Amino acid sequence: MKAINYGARARLGMIMPSGNQAAEPQFQAMLPAGVSLHTTRLKLTGSSEADLLAMTENVEDAASLIADAQANLVLFHCTAVSTFSTALEAQVLERVRQASGLPATATSEAITAALRAVGARRIVMLSPYVDAINRREEAYFSGAGFEVIGNVGLGKLDANAMMAVTPEEWVALARANRDDRADAYLLSCTTVRSTDVAEEIEGVLGRPVVTSNTAAVWHCLRTLGIRDSVAGFGQLLRDH
User: Fold this and answer.
1) d(CA 20, CA 131)
2) Are 202 and 231 in contact (CB under 8 A)?
3) What is the rounded average pLDDT of the residues 175-189?
4) pLDDT per position as a tens digit, 108-162
5) Which of 19, 72, 91, 115 is the most buried (most CB within 10 A)?
């Protein structure tokens, strides 16, 4: 009988968009033995500015629920919301900490830390997003010290459309936007199937590939003091 994972080493709490179908399965595949995942959701299925901001309205309720599960760390896991602005990022994280009494981090912080860990300065960013989200995200990462030399979105308007982009399409998109000046490629968004092929894309492009979900898992594990090497999802989790 397969052992049940109750989080003997650590319990990771995650606040995520309600429409997200990818993060939980991908996290379960990447988390090492003894690290359990405990999630709750806030309403978000669309991509308008009003949709994104509305996700933050009940963040205290979500953080309190995660605290009930005795998590060791809370992850606010939405790339588009956490990179909306540094002010919103800071506000949301402080609200999560106050409501839960726990350490907290966000997808935005995880990606920044991951890109630095792989030695990236110039990045190409690929996403399923509309232009408005891509522009805000580029401003966020530029402000964090990265040079965004490519920024391509697929114009998908909701979570179902984002999830419908196949892993093969992510490979093709990355291949079509290869730029040998790039130090790394960021495949942004938590509800897409790019993590499935992150390692394959690294082989195609010859550069590190960071996805929102690989970055989040890596950053949360390292924050929790867990340094296991996780194979199959790219060099970030394997080597750093």
Assistant:
1) 20
2) no
3) 98
4) 999 999 999 999 999 999 999 999 999 999 999 999 999 999 999 999 999 999 9
5) 115
Is 2 a residue whose pLDDT tops 90?
Answer: no
Contact indicator for 71, 44 with CB cutoff of 8 Å: no
First to last CA, the chain: 32
pTM: 0.98
Residue 111, C-beta contacts closer than 8 angstroms, at least 6 positions apart? 79, 83, 141, 186, 188, 210, 212, 215, 216
Q: Which residue ranges form the domains of the chain, and what is each CATH number?
A: 10-109+214-231 (3.40.50.12500), 110-211 (3.40.50.1860)
Closest by CA position to 200, among listed 171, 176, 229: 171
Torsion of CA 234, 17, 32, 35, to 10 degrees: 160
Residue with tokens 């839960």: 100
